[in-house]
Amino acid sequence: xxxxxxxxxxxxxxxxxxxxxxxxxxxxxxxxxxxxxxxxxxxxxxxxxxxxxxxxxxxxxxxxxxxxxxxxxxxxxxxxxxxxxxxxxxxxxxxxxxxxxxxxxxxxxxxxxxxxxxxxxxxxxxxxxxxxxxxxxxxxxxxxxxxxxxxxxxxxxxxxxxxxxxxxxxxxxxxxxxxxxxxxxxxxxxxxxxxxxxxxxxxxxxxxxxxxxxxxxxxxxxxxxxxxxxxxxxxxxxxxxxxxxxxxxxxxxxxxxxxxxxxxxxxxxxxxxxxxxxxxxxxxxxxxxxxxxxxxxxxxxxxxxxxxxxxxxxxxxxxxxxxxxxxxxxxxxxxxxxxxxxxxxxxxxxxxxxxxxxxxxxxxxxxxxxxxxxxxxxxxxxxxxxxxxxxxxxxxxxxxxxxxxxxxxxxxxxxxxxxxxxxxxxxxxxxxxxxxxxxxxxxxxxxxxxxxxxxxxxxxxxxxxxxxxxxxxxxxxxxxxxxxxxxxxxxxxxxxxxxxxxxxxxxxxxxxxxxxxxxxxxxxxxxxxxxxxxxxxxxxxxxxxxxxxxxxxxxxxxxxxxxxxxxxxxxxxxxxxxxxxxxxxxxxxxxxxxxxxxxxxxxxxxxxxxxxxxxxxxxxxxxxxxxxxxxxxxxxxxxxxxxxxxxxx
Length: 649
Known about the structure:
Layout: E1 3-7, E2 10-14, H1 23-32, H2 34-40, H3 66-72, H4 74-92, H5 103-137, E3 156-158, E4 161-163, H6 171-179, E5 187-188, H7 198-218, H8 223-231, H9 235-262, H10 280-291, H11 294-304, H12 306-313, H13 315-352, H14 355-365, H15 375-378, H16 391-406, H17 420-442, H18 456-476, H19 478-483, H20 487-508, H21 516-519, H22 523-549, H23 557-572, H24 574-590, H25 595-604, H26 611-639, H27 645-648
Helix pairs in contact: 4-5, 4-13, 5-13, 9-10, 9-11, 9-22, 9-23, 9-26, 10-20, 11-18, 12-13, 13-16, 13-24, 14-25, 17-18, 17-22, 20-22, 23-26, 24-26
């Protein structure tokens, strides 16, 4: 390491362990100017943002300017301003993603606009707060010539290394030097008051490491060592997060095909079909149990590391980082990629279907989700704000920023994780009661997805409680307790999960001619009461299983690539699997299969689907699943190599 000391334009280069001449006089000069440094300390402003150039230090006796912050934090400013633009769009066109205009959709759009305005104000406030704060506190000086010049040492610490700034003591030189740093580094410019010489720093580090090693060997309760021991290896959390992203993509693909299966007989004046295609039962079974716990576990994992990240970065850096990482991809999909994708799907339908088939499809889908849904209006060319899979990113950002705002006022709670049996027998049923009450109230209401929340019964009954549990778990290292569950406990959890899987299958078996006991289950009661009760043991089962079976001690390059790609895969998944469904239909057409005629017969009959339809549905599942993942994951990895995108993903 090297320390560059500037005093009135004179530069002194010092290596660790070497005391240059005049050091004692330099120390006396620093002590003599302590009062002046305290007076001019507000003129030096630093900002720490991980992943980009984030340090602009006022030099040559002048305070940091607005342009300095804007040039360093331009991406944060762009995202904040884009939130204002999105708010204006939602106010000007208060429609849902299908173009429906109702009082509920307008209220939801206005709520979103207010939400976006808060994001924009919070982002710009955090960006420019140091300048606003320093301008209020800057003392008045009668004599401009007596202003304190910037004469302190400048050492830039980058990922544990010392970086020597540009030789010229100027703002432009500092900026040019900082811009050469590798992306992803954490940059910090210490102020004069907190700066120490390299040899002092190294000596302190050596002492700290030696003391820590001795305390660990002696078995003492050293804080840093205790934290490391309590957490253990958490590589399985990254594996689990990527696996959940994989399952979300699969659930969305399966959901499309399940909807196709449920269209059977939708144009028939008779009774609903007695037997749907064979894909419906296994597909709907996987869809149901994944839907009831996947996003909730996502919330828990995201919140688990939230508190430690906030403590490490501080409020301002934490908020700006989340706005870029969550807000940027959300706006990118909802305002650009999602609307363009929907327009492409509409144009393909108008191209592929003639008037007779358009009329048949309109009758089949009309009123399935909204009583006011008009298929002909839906086909109109409109650039509509899209929710898509990024609704989860939006609400994760909401929950995270709310926690960051209220965390200074929250008490620090230290307690062990409740026993798994208590969570399954008390916490789960309590959440089930909340879920049931909200579902029965909002099930037939247009406010069920208010504010782009995916069903508020899940939002209040699962997502918010699991996020709170993640915050508490991160503070108290609950994952260690999950990993160390006793044998009889985790086997009990596994038996409960297996029982729920069987129960979910019995729910779906109501449309088949099988035993009477199964056919007398109250499906509606199970659907409205059991999701949170199932989510608790299922989450414990998955966390424990991954901690023991998918927890590599030395992750390889494939692991790192898999982990790095998962976020982009989640955001851009619809851009792959929906066009691939169209590609599959075109392949069938080129193979001589009359797809439109078969679909028309399928939606008009209540008989069992013929072998051609059965084969087409199963073929679509395997074709779209395989091709989607083969294309999506490498693309998600490559997206992180694109400028600007690499700051968000």
